[in-house]
Every structure is written in structure tokens, then in C-alpha cells.
Amino acid sequence: MLENHINRLTQLGLNVYEAKAYTALLGKESFSATQVADISGVPRQRIYDILASLVERGLAISRPGRHGTKYAAVSPKSALSALLEREQQRLSRLETMTNELVEELSDQYQEGKEESSPLEYIEVLRGRTAINQRFAEIQSNCQREILIFTKPPYARPPQENVEGLETLKRNIQACSIYEYSVLQSEETRQAVDFFIRHGEEARFVEHLPLKLVIVDEEIVMFAMEDPIAGRTDLTILVIEHKQLAKLVKIAFETLWSRGESFEAACSRLEQSVGN
Questions:
Q1: 95: how many CB neighbours lie within 10 A of its CB?
Q2: Cα–Cα distance, 134 to 130 (Å, whole number)
Q3: pLDDT tens across 156-203, in order?
Q4: Inter-residue contact 211 to 186 (CB < 8 Å)
Q5: In angstroms, what CA-CA distances link 134 with 125, 137, 213?
Q6: Positive or negative, the Cα torsion across 211, 253, 219, 247?
Q7: Type and span of the H or E element at 112
């Protein structure tokens, strides 16, 4: 219980020694500094600094006397309310500073975006975190249409694609072509069915050449498989190039015309399992 109290006091802004000293002071009317050190476990060479800090913060009071200074705890209601108020003031200052910093850095960010190099329209992403963050940003910025080739390995499984649902809520035309293998997992199949019921258009094919996203006929995002056999590392290229996007969309539409509906693909899966 004592350790729990100390942990929670540190969350209100005290350090561990201050928390230990304050809880020790609650034991009786008053203590000498040496007694507080012995009870709390705070090193004697630190106890006077710690007690002075508690007095300054309003958690303790000092009582000079003929036999030395005694220290007493301020009631928890008053002391902890004061700590909470200080933390709230600190957070308010942080919020103000953050808002100011966002405004200042946003100008710098926009100026930086205007600076471009000859290959600025090409990004190379590695690592699931970076890939997921960029894909989420691309989905959130989509204005009209998003076309997707979905196949494993996934940087984020379909059932975890929260941004995809938000895209559908914005009435964006969303079309996905899946490999049949996506239906072999019950959890993934239910996720695909969920997206279809919420407005996604879907087709299913035996094999997709790569993972691909086309957004608003402007951005192409696709995976480059590792050439070393057995490696599953993901490397994603993002290219903002309208002519390329329109060309790749033709390939998407060709595969779409050959694909099967969700119902037909599920029926195919059931037949293969039955056989």
C-alpha cells in the first residue's frame, strides 16, 4: 500500500524521496529531520533538502524549537489539492506552448514542402511503423478514389485498418482486389465482409503481382519484394506521378474485370475445402 501511495504521489509531481518523506510525516504530529530520514529511508545527507522542498511546496510545515526544528505534514486534502493545481497549471502552460510551437513550426514545414529536389516525388519506406503511418496519411488525404491490391504479407491486416473505415464514411470510392488466400482466415474474411457491407467494392483473384494502392489517379504506393528467398521484409515505394498512376490504373481495371465477387470467392473456397 505504501509503495502504491508513493507511486501515485510521484505522478502528482513529487520525486520519490519527497513522496517517501511526506508519507513518513503522516505518522504522527511532528518529527525531527533525523527521524523522518530513518522512517522514510531517505539518505540523511538529503533529508534537509527534501524537507525544505516539501515546506516550499506546501506539503509540510517546519516548527523551530529549543531542541531543533520539527516537521509536520499538511493535511492530504490541502497538500494534494495544491499539487494537483500546480500540475494543472503546468499542463495549461504546456498546452499554450504546444499551440504556439505548432503554429511556428507549421510555417517552417510548409516552406520546406515548397523546396523540392528532382526526385522529390519518390519515397522509399521500410519498417511496418513507417509504412502504416504513411498509408494512414494517404488514406486520410484521399479525395475521390482509392484502388488497392491486397495480399500478404500485411504491414497491417485488413481487420486493423481503422482508417479504411473512416475513408468509406467520407463516401470515397474504395475498390479492392484481394487474393483468394485472404479468405482462408475466418477473422480476415469477416473483416473483408465488414468493409464490403460498409461500401467497399471488392473482387477476388488467384494471384496478384504485388501490393498496390492508387489514390485519386495521382499517387501510387506499391511493395517491392525482397529478392532474397525467404525474406519477408517490406519495402514500399510511394510515387506522386499522375501519368504513372493512370497507367497503373489500367492494369488494376484489367484485373478487376477478371475477378470474382465476394460471394463467388467464398463459394469457391467452400468447394475446395469440401474436395
A1: 10
A2: 6
A3: 666 666 666 677 778 889 999 999 888 888 888 888 898 898 899 999
A4: no
A5: 8, 5, 12
A6: positive
A7: helix 76-114
Smallest CA-to-CA distance from 193 within 142, 114, 269 is with: 269
CB 25 within 8 A of CB 72: yes
Question: Are the beta carbons of 232 and 130 closer than 8 angstroms?
Answer: no
Any idea what DSSP says for residue 128?
Answer: H
Strands (E), 15-121: 31-32, 60-63, 70-73
pTM of the model: 0.54
Q: How many CB atoms lie within 10 A of CB 173?
A: 14
Computed over every residue of the chain, the mean pLDDT equals: 84
pLDDT, residue 231, reads 54
Q: Do the bridges between strand 70-73 and strand 31-32 make them parallel or antiparallel, or are there none, so unpaired?
A: antiparallel
Residue 227 has pLDDT above 70, yes or no: no
d(CA 269, CA 275): 10
The letter for the amino acid at 120 is E
212-215/145-150 β-pairing: antiparallel
Q: How confident is the model at residue 229 (pLDDT cuts 50, 70, 90)?
A: very low
Query: In the numeric block, which cell numbers belong to residue 34?
Result: 533525523
Residue 93 and residue 149: Cα distance in Å, rounded? 47
Cell 515505394 sits on residue: 237
CA distances from 88 to 5, 75, 152, 188 (A): 20, 20, 47, 44
Q: What is the pLDDT of residues 11-70, one digit of tens each?
A: 888 889 999 999 999 888 888 999 999 998 999 999 999 999 999 888 899 988 777 889
Provide φ and ψ at 79, rounded to 5°.
Answer: -65, -50
Give residue-wise pLDDT tens across range 206-224.
999 888 999 999 999 888 7
Question: Of all helices (H) and strands (E), which one includes residue 271?
Answer: helix 262-274
